[in-house]
Design goal:
Layout (H helix, E strand, L loop, with lengths): L1 E5 L4 H9 L3 E5 L6 H5 L5 E4 L7 H5 L6 E4 L9 H7 L2 E4 L5 H17 L1 H9 L18 E4 L3 H12 L4 E4 L14 E2 L2 H7 L2 E4 L13 H6 L5 E4 L8 H9 L5 E4 L19 E3 L8 H11 L16 H12 L6 E3 L33 H5 L2 H13 L4 H6 L1
Helix pairs in contact: 1-11, 5-7
């Protein structure tokens, strides 16, 4: 098989696919028509977030069988067009869960303690200790919008910091096992009561600009926003207005609606904005997990399918069996500690969410739900074993 690897896919993943006997062509910064030219005769495409796999790209690549996104979101892949052409779309939903959860608190702590500005002053020879009096996060209420894998990891860290946690997720109607200390509520209540609002939802037509002027008007004037999900979820014009008029105190953002963000982006000019160039998944650990998922599944040979089928094996399966079937968007579990929602038995589906929930009636829901009796109980038991902060301190 011939595979095109774009966006700087981890070299170890590329090496593993080659070792499995497949040809891999590496490229960066490709857009149509160059991408179409590179896709001639290609059966597998590996991307991160930069390459846009549009309907036109899919139509111009008749040999393409599978697209693998090394990461969580699938908003850069036209899944409807892939379905129509029988192209399988996979992602690695667990790969960056921990990294994004950690950078969420890195952003929050840096924002509230002015770490970036203080470090810059110090490098410039200015010892500005009194200038940078900050705020604690202990005791402040965290509102988590999007309570999938990443949102739940963020909640665990918030609990360790002594923050009460509110959560909202349209697909979560009751607290998952082990999260009875999280108060699920409607979104408007969360926005009104939270001191810190953090976003962990995918970018879809439903979530695009889902935080805009109305939502900012509901928030406390002293509240802060953290966005390490997708830039388009937030209306940046409305956010700029809220930050400049005192409607919102501050924001920490790792993502922009258009990336890379322009140097003269209005939000980058504001003193109450801490911005990063989409570093959420930029850790060696996240890339190693993605490598295991996109390459050959946690270091196993390409012909072994557990715990995750490798890209090379998927291409073979697609070529042999699935060319005539609708495309399936299948997530890969690669982080050993993270489990999927109990109603999906710890597995994942084609539904594009940061926890990739399996919905009844989805392409492979039968196989997912057949796991519930065992995997669901195991997931719940694992979640229930997490010690409380008080018990950890006593230990």
């Amino acid at each position: 098989m011939k595979v095109l690897a774009c966006d700087g896919i981890d070299p170890a993943a590329v090496r593993r696919i080659r070792e499995a006997g497949h040809e891999v062509i590496e490229a960066k910064g490709l857009a149509a028509p160059d991408l179409l030219t590179a896709l001639k005769g290609v059966q597998g495409l590996l991307v991160r977030s930069a390459t846009k796999v549009t309907a036109d790209v899919l139509a111009g690549a008749p040999d393409l069988r599978v697209v693998v996104r090394a990461g969580t979101g699938l908003d850069n892949v036209d899944r409807a067009a892939a379905d129509a052409r029988g192209v399988v779309v996979r992602n690695t939903p667990d790969a960056n869960t921990i990294s994004v959860a950690e950078i969420t608190f890195g952003l929050l702590l840096s924002l509230e303690r002015h770490l970036a500005d203080a470090a810059a002053d110090l490098r410039a020879g200015r010892w500005e200790k009194s200038k940078y009096a900050g705020r604690e996060i202990f005791g402040r209420t965290l509102g988590v919008i999007g309570f999938g894998r990443i949102g739940r990891e963020v909640a665990h860290r918030a609990r360790a910091f002594g923050m009460p946690v509110l959560a909202h997720d349209e697909m979560v109607k009751k607290s998952p096992a082990g999260f009875d200390w999280v108060r699920l509520t409607d979104r408007d209540t969360l926005l009104r009561e939270a001191d810190v609002v953090t976003l962990h939802v995918p970018l879809t037509e439903r979530t695009r600009h889902s935080l805009s002027a109305r939502e900012f008007a509901l928030m406390k004037p002293d509240a802060v926003l953290v966005n390490a999900s997708r830039g388009g979820v937030v209306d940046e014009t409305a956010l700029h207005e809220a930050l400049t008029t005192g409607r919102l105190r501050a924001a920490a953002i790792d993502v922009f609606e258009r990336e890379p963000a322009a140097a003269d982006h209005p939000l980058l000019r504001l003193h109450n904005v801490l911005a990063l160039p989409h570093l959420g998944a930029s850790t060696s650990e996240a890339q190693r997990r993605a490598r295991g998922s996109v390459g050959m599944g946690s270091g196993r040979p390409a012909n072994q399918l557990e715990p995750a089928r490798g890209t090379a094996q998927v291409v073979v399966e697609v070529d042999a069996k699935q060319r005539k079937l609708p495309g399936r968007h299948v997530g890969v579990h690669s982080h050993p500690r993270i489990v999927g929602p109990p109603w999906c038995g710890g597995m994942t589906s084609h539904v594009e969410r940061d926890e990739q929930r399996c919905a009844p009636g989805s392409v492979h829901s039968a196989s997912c739900h057949s796991q519930n009796a065992v995997s669901g109980r195991r997931s719940a038991a694992s979640a229930g074993r997490r010690p409380s902060p008080d018990r950890r301190r006593r230990a």
